[in-house]
Amino acid sequence: MYGRVLYLVAALSAAASPIGAADSAVPIAISGAVADLHRPPEQANLDAQRKPAQMIGFAGVKPRDRVADFMPGNAYFTRILSKVVGPTGKVYAFIPEEEIKNCKPSEIAGSRAIEHDPNYRNVVQLSGPVNQFSAPQKLDVIWTAQNYHDLHDSFLGPADIKSVNKAFFDSLRPGGVLIIIDHAAVAGSGLRDTESLHRIDPSNARREIEGAGFVFEGEIDDLKNHNDDHSRSVFDPAIRGKTDQFVYKFRKPDKAK
């Protein structure tokens, strides 16, 4: 219990720091969500490297929002987003059928567990073909962290990237936001390293997403690491948890239909 109290104090202190380039205080809904004592300790211990308060603050997620967490893995962000949007909001955790079929159950165990957790009643599990992502209602935010590169990999088909990005676009309300967090590959490498190193050239990702009609709104540098030379797999112990990552925010134009 004492350790959890120390974590609560540390989380609140960290969440009160500036949000990257936005340079503004984190909203209380976000700081409270990060400090949620129902989060697994092993996930809370990752906060220093994943900086969830800064990420969610940059995205602009707020109470009552409808959010999709695409390929949520072990639900690290799903849990936090659930508490940010609150009881009148909704979080849709979408797991592609191809991921369920081709990956180890442990990779999505956290997402499966949350389905039966009364502390996260506003989370709804969804599944379907990766190319046919959808949600029961128009969304304010679509969130995907450390897995956009996977769309180009064999275990997902690979996915038809144009279909996926169009599905993202169509699922958002006009003015809605798409957040992409992923491991950066060497500039100019395109899709070369998505399967081998689990990285993607940021400019390639941006070009694909803008091709679906999204407008690039900005980025923050909070997860950049200039000591990462981009030559190692993200699972290499020498760089795991410390990769150079890009954080991109795209918006569906207000007049889009």
Polypeptide structure, described:
This protein is of the alpha/beta class and 257 residues long. It contains 10 helices and 7 strands. The chain has a 7-stranded mixed beta sheet with strand order 3-2-1-4-5-7-6. β1, α6 and β2 form a beta-alpha-beta unit. It is globular, with a radius of gyration of 17 Å.
Q: Unreliable segments (pLDDT under 50, ≥5 consecutive)?
A: 1-23
Number of strands: 7
The geometry reads as globular
Quote the beta fraction: 15-25%
Q: What is the share of helical residues?
A: 25-40%
Task: Provide a quick synopsis of the model.
With 257 residues, the protein is α/β, with parallel strands linked by helices. The protein has helices at 2-15, 28-34, 41-44, 47-50, 52-59, 76-85, 97-102, 109-114, 161-171, 202-210; strands at residues 66-70, 90-96, 123-128, 139-145, 172-183, 215-220, 245-251.
Helices and strands, with pairings:
Blueprint: H1 2-15, H2 28-34, H3 41-44, H4 47-50, H5 52-59, E1 66-70, H6 76-85, E2 90-96, H7 97-102, H8 109-114, E3 123-128, E4 139-145, H9 161-171, E5 172-183, H10 202-210, E6 215-220, E7 245-251
Parallel strand pairs: 1-2, 1-4, 2-3, 4-5
Antiparallel strand pairs: 5-7, 6-7
Helix pairs in contact: 1-2, 2-6
